[in-house]
């Protein structure tokens, strides 16, 4: 992989951001801690500030590119959002990183609209997955309404107001009759398992892929043993939350012992999430512009930048 990427350890990457001032109020840092309770100032300054600095270069370059095209055509091109895609396996922390980046980008670009969506919102509703016999393949490429997601991204790039469904991890399903309206954002962060797929089963029409709409792709990586442990921990957390939310999909597990719940989670990993990782997600890692490699405490210890 080193032939395709420039690889930086934590210290080397941190040195790229030493000249960047950190302007975070206690309130703003509190918001970040709410997203990730284990987050430290060091993680922000050593990992995320250099990443933001790089993204800023990418965004400026993209804006300049559109300005040049506008000058060539002799007219002003409608605002086109810059799309950042975050991919990786189940429980690797994609949502956490996406939320952190949204908060930090909003702080960096105070006048810009930074939106965030997840590809989970474009999963087929459970009733359709059941009808198609895909409930045990939830999260696999075929469990998504890819046509709808690609139309969403295409409309977004065209400057059209778009509507996204809403997915709930509590009910483990699309929320009926609820949507999120997105109006011409300057930056859109989209996170999901299969963003970088390039196989026919994850395309639309004449081989159009989700990755075709992404300006910068980030793959969050970790060894499978860590992903499995993080998934089991998350499964147990959802089970604990089921005591609070009576409508939780995980309510069925509250009367099962912790030991038995762990056994069930391990089985789900082996039959669904681990299999999806090997077959569909991990093979796309080398298509990412940036790879963030995590260690056991969820901190990032390697950053790989595609040449």
Question: What is shown here, in short?
Answer:
GO terms for molecular function: ATP binding; pantothenate kinase activity. One of its GO terms (biological process) is coenzyme A biosynthetic process. This protein is of the alpha/beta class and 307 residues long.
Share of residues in helices: 40-55%
Shape: globular
CATH superfamily: P-loop containing nucleotide triphosphate hydrolases
Largest sheet data: 7 strands, mixed
Q: For the largest sheet, list the strands in their spatial order.
A: 1-11-10-9-2-6-3
Radius of gyration: 20 Å
Q: What's the CATH architecture? A: 3-Layer(aba) Sandwich
Distance from N terminus to C terminus (CA atoms, Å) equals: 11 Å
Q: Give the count of structural domains.
A: 1
Question: How many DSSP helices?
Answer: 8
Keywords: ATP-binding, Coenzyme A biosynthesis, Cytoplasm, Kinase, Nucleotide-binding, Transferase
Protein name: Pantothenate kinase
Main location: cytoplasm
Subcellular location: Cytoplasm
Describe the overall structure.
By secondary structure, this protein is of the alpha/beta class. The protein has a single domain (80-306), classed as Rossmann fold (3-Layer(aba) Sandwich). It contains eight helices and eleven strands. It has helices at residues 10-15, 26-35, 41-73, 94-108, 126-132, 146-157, 224-241, 258-281; strands spanning 5-9, 82-88, 114-118, 162-168, 173-182, 187-191, 203-204, 208-209, 216-221, 290-294, 300-306. The chain has a seven-stranded mixed β-sheet with strand order 1-11-10-9-2-6-3. A two-stranded antiparallel sheet has the order 4-5. A two-stranded antiparallel ribbon has the order 7-8. Helix 2 runs antiparallel to helix 4 (94-108) and helix 7 crosses helix 8 (258-281). It is globular. The N and C termini lie close together (11 Å). The model has no long low-confidence stretch (mean pLDDT 92).
């Amino acid at each position: 992989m080193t032939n395709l990427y420039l690889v930086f350890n934590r210290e080397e990457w941190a040195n790229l951001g030493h000249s960047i001032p950190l302007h975070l109020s206690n309130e703003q840092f509190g918001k970040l801690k709410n997203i990730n309770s284990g987050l430290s100032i060091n993680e922000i300054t050593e990992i995320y500030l250099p990443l933001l600095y790089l993204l800023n270069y990418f965004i400026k370059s993209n804006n300049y590119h559109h300005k040049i095209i506008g000058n060539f055509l002799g007219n002003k091109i409608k605002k086109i959002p810059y799309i950042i895609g975050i991919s990786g396996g189940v429980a690797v922390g994609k949502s956490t990183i996406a939320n952190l980046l949204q908060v930090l980008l909003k702080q960096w670009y105070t006048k810009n609209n930074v939106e965030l969506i997840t590809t989970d919102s474009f999963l087929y509703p459970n009733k359709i997955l059941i009808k198609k016999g895909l409930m045990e393949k939830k999260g696999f490429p075929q469990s998504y309404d890819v046509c709808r997601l690609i139309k969403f991204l295409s409309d977004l790039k065209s400057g059209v107001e778009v509507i996204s469904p809403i997915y709930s991890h509590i009910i483990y399903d699309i929320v009926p009759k609820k949507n999120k309206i997105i109006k011409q954002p300057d930056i859109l962060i989209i996170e999901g398992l299969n963003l970088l797929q390039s196989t026919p089963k994850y395309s639309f029409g004449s081989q159009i892929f989700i990755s075709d709409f992404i300006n910068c792709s980030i793959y969050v990586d970790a060894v499978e043993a860590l992903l499995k442990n993080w998934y089991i921990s998350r499964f147990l957390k959802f089970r604990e939350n089921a005591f609070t939310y009576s409508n939780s999909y995980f309510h069925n597990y509250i009367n099962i012992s912790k030991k038995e719940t762990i056994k069930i989670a391990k089985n789900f990993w082996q039959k669904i999430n681990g299999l999806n990782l090997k077959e569909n997600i991990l093979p796309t890692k080398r298509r990412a512009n940036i790879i963030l490699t995590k260690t056991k405490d969820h901190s990032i210890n390697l950053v790989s930048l595609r040449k």
